[in-house]
Amino acid sequence: MFRIKVLAAVFYVVVALAEELSFFQADYSAPNIEETPSGITLEWPPLEPEDKATNPEALPEPTPTLTVTASIYHPEPGQTDSTPYITADGSRINKKDPKKHRWIAVSRDLHSRWGGVMEFGDSLWVTGISEELDGLYIVRDVMNQRMRNKIDILVGRHDPIYGKWENVQIAKLD
Fold first, then answer.
1. Gap between the Cα atoms of 45 and 60, Å rounded
2. Under a CB-based contact definition with an 8 Å cutoff, are residues 125 and 136 in contact?
3. How many angstroms separate the first and last alpha carbons of the chain?
4. Is 57 exposed, middle or buried (0-12, 13-18, 19+ CB in 10 A)?
5. What's the rounded Cα separation, in Å, for the pair 95 and 26?
C-alpha cells in the first residue's frame, strides 16, 4: 500500500512539473474574441461602401480621438499587483505570449468606473507608436491611480519592445 501512495505522489509531481513547463496545452472553451476572421485585414480609417461615401447624410459621426501617453508593461509582480497573469476584468494572460492578446491597461481617469469614457472590453484604435504596435486593442486592465491620461500595452518580458511614446492617438470603436 505504501508503494502505491509513493507512486501516486511521484506521478502527481511529474504531471504538475509538466504542466508548469507547458508540456500540456490547456484548451479554453471561451472563444477568443480578439482574433480577426481569416482573410480580413483591419484598416484605419475603415473603408466605406460607395453609397455612403456619396451620401453625406449616411455618414456616421466621427469618433472623437484622445491624445495620450503610451508605454508598455510586462505581466510581473513589480509592474502589476500580486496576480500578474490576471487582469482587472478577470481575464487570464497567456504566459508564453502575452503580446498576442493585444490588450491594454488604461489610466483610471479614462475608465468609466472613475468618470472616463472607456469600459472593460472596449475596442480602441491606437496610432502614433510604430507600425508593429499601432492597431486594434482591447481594454482589459487599469493602471495605478497616480497615472493620468495614459495607456499601457501588454507585452511579454522577452519581446524586444521598450519605450514611452507621447502624443499617441486613441479612438474608441463602436
1. 12
2. yes
3. 63
4. exposed
5. 12
As a whole number, the mean pLDDT across the chain is 78
> Using H for helix, E for strand and C for coil, what is the string for 60-91?
CCCCCEEEEEEEEECCCCCCCCCCCCECCCCC
pLDDT of residue 150: 92
pLDDT at 100: 83
Residue 161: partners with Cβ closer than 8 Å, 6 or more residues away: 72, 99, 132, 133, 153, 155
Parse the chain into domains and list their residue ranges. 62-172
Longest Cα pair distance anywhere in the chain, in angstroms?
82
Please name which of 108, 151, 158, 157 lies closest in space to residue 133, comparing C-alpha atoms. 151
User: Predicted confidence band at 57 (pLDDT cuts at 50, 70, 90)?
Assistant: low
Count of all residues that appear for the chain in the document: 174
Fold of domain 62-172: Barwin-like endoglucanases (2.40.40)
Instruction: Report the predicted TM-score, pTM, of the whole model to 2 decimal places.
Output: 0.61
Residue pair 70/129 in contact (Cβ under 8 Å)? The answer is yes
pLDDT tens, residue by residue, 116-150 = 888 898 888 998 888 888 889 999 988 888 889 99
Residue indicated by cell numbers 497567456: 94
What would the mean pLDDT of 102-128 be, rounded to a whole number? 87
